[in-house]
Amino acid sequence: MEHGRLVELAQKYIEPKLPKASPKASPRPRSEFFPGHVLREVHHEMNDQGLVKVAFSWEGVGWKHDDAIAMALLQTLLGGGDSFSAGGPGKGLLSQLYLEILNKFSMAEGAEAQFHNYDEEGIFSLVGTSAPDKAAELSHALCDFFVRYSYVPVQDKALDRAKQMLKVNLLTMMESRLILFEDMGRQILTYGEVMTAKQICDKVDAITADDIMRIVKGMLQCPPAVSAVGPKLDNVPTREQVDCWFGVKKKQE
After folding, report:
1. Alpha helices in 84-176 (DSSP H)
2. Is the Cα dihedral 151, 155, 160, 163 positive or negative?
3. Which residues neighbour 78 within 8 Å (Cβ) at sequence distance 6 or greater?
4. Fewest CB atoms within 10 Å of the CB: 1, 76, 218, 221?
5. What is the pLDDT of residues 37-61, one digit of tens each?
């Protein structure tokens, strides 16, 4: 079917049924990041090893932000996973969390970077898994690991590897017509236009080690939100301990 005929049918049968936008619709208020501290003790049969998960989360950026792709690259660079892996291509065994945390700290059962972004806001997190009595030690290691990226430039080899991995992931997804069509719709709603694969790859290639340091330093302007779940949370660091790690001064009463 020709594209013109498809447009004609859409205008005839679909466009009349679309809801009309309200001209006086009030803008949605922007969500504000709050460095909370939430612990939840859970005894679950799926967690038969009795492990604890601790997450440290910072305010990220939304889809429309200029640093959205750079933050996605940071997540790919840090990578991570579980302490056990069968290896093989694409397992991320050369990611920074594997090299600096999982391979060096025997108490780390898992460590990974996560980046969730939406229209205007985003969350960037480091999540660690350990035995309950090692939760404080792993937490401190993860925070120290992340802070280093605010003042130590990432090596060119590691940055180039992360760029290639991110581009491969993007291009592989675009091989599926279904995913490509869905992505086109999402881009139209978000940006008002569709970026080509080359445009996206060029943006990835343009990111520098200084950009990585800049966005990490920006996130560290506010202490992280802390959340933990597991059967025993006595050794999860307190709010005061985390604030101390990040140099947050307690307000005078």
Report:
1. 96-97, 135-148, 156-173
2. negative
3. 95, 96, 97, 112, 113, 126
4. 1
5. 999 988 765 555 789 999 999 999 9
